[in-house]
Each structure stands twice: as C-alpha cells, then as structure tokens.
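sry for the spam today, last one i promise. struct tokens for design, 57 residues
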C-alpha cells in the first residue's frame, strides 16, 4: 500500500497527501508547494508518504 501511495504522490502530490493526512495543515502546505513548483510539492508528498506513521494513527 505504501508503494501505491508513493506512486500517487508522483502523479498528483496533493491527492496523496489528502489520502494520507486528511484535510489539514500538511495538505494545504503541499498544495501551496505544488503551485509554487511541482518538485517541492513532490518532495514534500514523498517525505510524508515515507514516514512510518500517518498523523492521527
């Protein structure tokens, strides 16, 4: 499942963050980073996907 989330993060970073973290601070930061440039949003999303525990778990 983690691999699928990372692949989704490559295709559409904010959607992967929304699925992983829910609508919150991390999602809004990722949307802003993706608007400013695809690569910063991608790096942020993959970093969130690579963490061991999702927030709230």
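last one done:
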């Amino acid at each position: 499942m983690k691999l699928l989330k990372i692949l989704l993060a490559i295709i559409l970073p904010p959607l992967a963050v929304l699925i992983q973290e829910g609508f919150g601070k991390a999602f809004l930061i990722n949307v802003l980073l993706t608007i400013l440039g695809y690569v910063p949003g991608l790096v942020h999303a993959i970093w969130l996907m690579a963490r061991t525990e999702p927030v709230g778990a």
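Helices lie at 2-11, 13-21, 25-36, 38-50. ok im logging off now
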